[in-house]
């Protein structure tokens, strides 16, 4: 029984939150990796793109809520999500036409594009703060739990409860749908194939008549969808704060690099590797250990490897270790 | 410098003087002092980016290490804290460092294979728990001593001017560790690594209360020799008399006098560093660095050790940022880890370098002053603009209130627009590389 309790406590505090967080990071990392593979630069504005997309979704959600439109037990934000994606897509394509296209045609060095993305990051960050403010915004409504800790306890008779928040369930389901759709698109459709061809070998792709501007356009649209979905899911699960989204840049990049930049499958694996390590290393294992170990061995302290504030250190250390021993990432990525 | 460059400097001088006449001399001197510090930071980044093409987005971390240096060199040592846990903490840190060195040695000595991986893991995991056991006890004891006032080890009690080079050394040490691991990999990886290390340095400074009191801040840092306290000036009869002779009241005169004192010190540091940077730029070493930047393959073919040269310049540039960080904390008189924001301390410095002209030391200095001036003045300008836009709206209208409240966020927006405009229309900056 104690052993079961230990497993449930572990699942409640590590497995479930880690899976949800991993799915959010994976979606973010997919965006970074697609831009890297096709546009060939590290997009520092990605965190703020996520914030920007989420801001659209929040504003539309508020609009729906004031009109009295709801989504039953599910959060209204899911209804607003498609509109948010369209608006973010328009924003990104507009940014590309206004800003990035010029440098792409000049064939500048990738690092100049990174610099340009810094400028875009500043503007997006400023606009987000300007429109919605720098403070925390909560916008989730509907049912809070799929299973609450108390229900779980009465159901199983265990001492430990396993709570699954609705947002965590939605995160996982949405992420699976989005990823399945993305891979179908990349592997089966003509446009998707041309994107992969362009990513693998630009010159050959151009020779076989692929229109680069079209590839770029689709990339931005997909990135907009991924970023908005990732940002909205993260905001529903935790809360929306522009600065937090900016800070997500580090774990997202870590996930993309650990998986191998430019490799979509790697981005997903990387997202979960980073998320689980962060949650595991910063979780206080006292409770689990109390159940799992005999009394004599039970720890006195919290049995926490590192304090929660060092979660950046975790993604960073994993990043460095992978880079030192496997410079192209776990799955083979490309290098510029 | 050409005539056009000098005119640009004169123009920035007029901007600051204009602030003095239009607003107040205190704010003008504040802009000047922070402009001097920003110029030094920009010099450091320019050394890395302009001279060597290294993309460092962890400026904030090095600046913060400089700030930490002021605490650990200039604050008096807290004897009680030292006696209860000082030795234990130091010993714990040595154990931690020893663990990493041991793991590296295992990696180098043993032949590759599963045994090596297992041995390294054993060393790292065992070392980690040993480290935590020794270290945590010491930390607990130290933080329990008088947490409301001290609760940290304190420093060496040296004059605060010593902290400036120490800040450079700390930053150089951190740069050495990052450079050793991330240089030689692809260029973007260095960017991500520096971004990460900066966040970690800030996290350490916020959480390790035994070191610098964490978010409880260290206040009341000493002032450098030559910079008196305002209250002493106001109590000195001769100073009050002189101020009255110039037509100032004693309170204003004393604050201006103190700021001028800082400005003189900062100018001396800036001039020394600028002179050194110019010497480096125009030396054989500087020409080699630029050659490496422009064509790494050719430089390698000529027998240059590219990674070693990159490491060198990365450490030098970071050290300059560390010195500037120590100077800034000295000017503030307190260390507040929560005030370090990446947009302000990393990306703003980058805007300075790009706008001023990467590869040109004078350009970076100019960019430092100009962008700092904009950063300070955009807020009142934004507010005025918003008031103009909303003048026709009725009071209490939600949009009017929202626009006026959000005027503060105009800063980031303006910096982004300035950066993009310069990159597009004048990618070599105001004073281009020659």
Automatic annotation (TrEMBL), chain A:
The keyword Electron transport does not apply. InterPro entries: ABC_transp_permease, BCAA_transport_permease. Its main location: membrane. It is a multi-pass membrane protein. One of its GO terms (cellular component) is plasma membrane. It is found in: Cell membrane. It comes from the Bacteria. Belongs to the binding-protein-dependent transport system permease family. LivHM subfamily. This is Amino acid/amide ABC transporter membrane protein 1 (HAAT family). It comes from Litoreibacter meonggei.
Automatic annotation (TrEMBL), chain B:
It is a multi-pass membrane protein. This is Amino acid/amide ABC transporter membrane protein 2 (HAAT family). Keywords: Cell membrane, Membrane, Transmembrane, Transmembrane helix. It comes from Litoreibacter meonggei. It is found in: Cell membrane. One of its GO terms (cellular component) is plasma membrane. CDD domains: TM_PBP1_LivM_like (cd06581). It comes from the Bacteria. InterPro entries: ABC_transp_permease (IPR001851), LivM-like (IPR043428). GO terms for molecular function: branched-chain amino acid transmembrane transporter activity. Its main location: membrane. The chain crosses the membrane at residues 32-52, 59-77, 89-106, 118-135, 155-177, 189-205, 256-277, 311-331, 343-362, 369-389, 409-426.
């Amino acid at each position: 029984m104690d052993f079961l309790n230990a497993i449930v406590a572990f699942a409640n505090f590590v497995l479930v939150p880690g899976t949800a967080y991993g799915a959010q990071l994976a979606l973010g990392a997919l965006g970074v990796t697609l831009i890297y593979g096709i546009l060939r630069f590290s997009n520092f504005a990605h965190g703020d793109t996520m914030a920007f997309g989420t801001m659209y979704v929040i504003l539309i959600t508020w609009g729906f809520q004031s009109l009295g439109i709801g989504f039953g037990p599910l959060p209204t934000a899911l209804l607003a999500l498609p509109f948010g994606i369209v608006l973010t897509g328009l924003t990104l394509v507009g940014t590309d036409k206004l800003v990035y296209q010029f440098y792409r045609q000049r064939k500048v060095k990738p690092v100049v594009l990174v610099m340009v993305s810094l400028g875009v990051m500043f503007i997006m960050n400023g606009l987000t703060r300007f429109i919605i403010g720098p403070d925390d915004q909560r916008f989730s409504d509907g049912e809070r739990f799929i299973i609450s800790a108390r229900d779980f306890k009465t159901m199983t008779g265990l001492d430990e409860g396993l709570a699954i928040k609705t947002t965590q369930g939605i995160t996982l389901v949405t992420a699976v749908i989005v990823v399945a759709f993305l891979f179908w698109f990349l592997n089966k459709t003509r446009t998707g194939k041309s994107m992969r061809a362009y990513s693998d070998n630009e010159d050959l792709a151009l020779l076989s008549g692929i229109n680069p501007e079209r590839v770029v356009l689709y990339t931005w649209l997909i990135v907009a969808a991924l970023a908005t979905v990732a940002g909205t899911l993260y905001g529903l699960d935790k809360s929306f704060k522009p600065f937090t989204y900016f800070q997500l840049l580090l774990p997202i990049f870590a996930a993309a690099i650990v998986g191998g930049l430019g490799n979509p499958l790697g981005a997903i694996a990387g997202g979960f590797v980073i998320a689980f390590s962060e949650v595991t290393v910063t979780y206080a294992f006292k409770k689990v250990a109390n159940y799992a170990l005999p009394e004599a061995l039970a720890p006195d302290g919290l049995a926490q490897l590192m304090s929660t504030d060092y979660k950046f250190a975790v993604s960073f250390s994993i990043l460095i270790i992978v880079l030192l021993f496997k410079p192209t990432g776990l799955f083979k990525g490309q290098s510029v | 410098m050409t005539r056009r460059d000098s005119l640009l400097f004169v123009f920035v001088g007029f901007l600051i003087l204009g602030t003095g006449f239009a607003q107040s001399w205190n704010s003008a001197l504040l802009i000047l002092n922070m402009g001097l510090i920003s110029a030094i930071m920009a010099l450091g980044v320019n050394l890395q980016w302009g001279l060597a093409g290294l993309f460092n987005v962890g400026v904030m971390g090095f600046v913060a290490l400089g700030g930490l240096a002021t605490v650990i060199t200039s604050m008096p040592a807290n004897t009680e804290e030292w006696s209860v846990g000082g030795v234990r903490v130091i010993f714990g840190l040595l154990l931690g460092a020893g663990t990493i060195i041991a793991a590296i040695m295992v990696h180098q000595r043993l032949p590759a294979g599963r045994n090596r991986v297992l041995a390294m893991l054993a060393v790292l995991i065992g070392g980690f728990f040993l480290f935590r056991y020794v270290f945590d006890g010491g930390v607990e004891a130290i933080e329990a001593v008088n947490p409301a006032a001290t609760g940290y080890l304190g420093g060496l009690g040296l004059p605060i001017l010593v902290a400036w080079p120490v800040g450079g050394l700390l930053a150089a040490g951190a740069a050495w560790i990052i450079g050793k691991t991330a240089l030689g990999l692809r260029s973007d990886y260095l960017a991500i690594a520096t971004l990460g290390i900066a966040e970690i340095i800030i996290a350490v400074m916020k959480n390790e209360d035994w070191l610098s009191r964490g978010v409880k801040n260290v206040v009341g840092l000493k002032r450098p020799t030559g910079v008196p306290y305002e209250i002493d000036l106001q109590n000195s009869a001769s100073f009050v008399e002189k101020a009255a002779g110039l037509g100032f009241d004693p309170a204003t005169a004393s604050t201006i006098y103190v700021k001028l004192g800082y400005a003189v010190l900062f100018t001396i540091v800036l001039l020394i560093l600028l002179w050194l940077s110019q010497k480096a730029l125009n030396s054989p070493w500087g020409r080699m660095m630029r050659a490496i930047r422009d064509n790494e393959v050719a430089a390698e073919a000529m027998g240059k050790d590219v990674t070693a040269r990159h490491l060198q310049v990365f450490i030098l540039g970071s050290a300059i940022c560390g010195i500037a960080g120590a100077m800034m904390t000295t000017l503030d008189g307190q260390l507040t880890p929560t005030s370090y924001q990446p947009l302000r301390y990393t990306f703003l410095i980058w805007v300075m370098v790009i706008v001023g002209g990467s590869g040109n030391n004078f350009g970076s200095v100019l960019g430092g002053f100009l962008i700092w001036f904009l950063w300070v003045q955009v807020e009142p300008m934004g507010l005025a603009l918003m008031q103009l836009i909303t003048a026709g709206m009725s009071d209490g209208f939600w949009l009017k209130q929202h626009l006026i409240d959000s005027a503060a966020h105009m800063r980031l927006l303006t910096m982004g627009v300035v950066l993009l405009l310069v990159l597009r229309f004048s990618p070599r900056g105001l004073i281009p590389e020659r």
